[in-house]
Each structure stands twice: as C-alpha cells, then as structure tokens.
Amino acid sequence: MTYRVVxxxxxxxxxxxxxxxxxxxxxxxxxxxxxxxxxxxxxLAQFPKRCPFAPENGLGGMEIRHLIHGDYRIVFAIDxxxxxxxxIRHGARLPIGDPK
Length: 100
Hints:
The protein contains 2 helices and 4 strands; from the N terminus they run βααβββ. By secondary structure, the protein is an alpha+beta fold.
C-alpha cells in the first residue's frame, strides 16, 4: 500500500528553521541536509508502520510514530492512507507536549 504524505505547516516551518540554522555556517551543507530530510519524508509513503512509536504516542488520541534520521526526528501520525508529518525536531529537544 502506498500512503499519501502530507507535511503540515509546522513541519514546513521546522525545515525552514533547520535550513537557516545550518546555512549560517555552511549553506551547501544546509541544502544537502534538507534534500536528505525531504527524501526521508517521501520515503514514508512506503511502510510508515515500520517506524517505532514516538514518545508523543497517544497525544491528542493519535497514534504517533517517528523516523529518526541523524540528529533529527520526523514525527508523524497515520490516518487511513495518509501520513501526516507533524514536526521535524532535533533529537535533543523534549518531546512534543512535555511540560518541562
């Protein structure tokens, strides 16, 4: 089964922030990193359930999973045949909704 991957505005903003942060020192590395993350996003169209549950699982009543790539986590939910990318976060950040 092939899933449709939808990237939320929040996740798009995360990509912009990641690009900006890396580009301050190395613009070419930033472009390469975003291109790789984008490929990872597209890859979620095939077998997204291969990814483990995220610490955020159950938040808002959703089944939330994550795909880890390097230092980043792609946090997403599956709704029918749609993969909804919620956020792209650095792994050192606290989980979404963590009150700390």
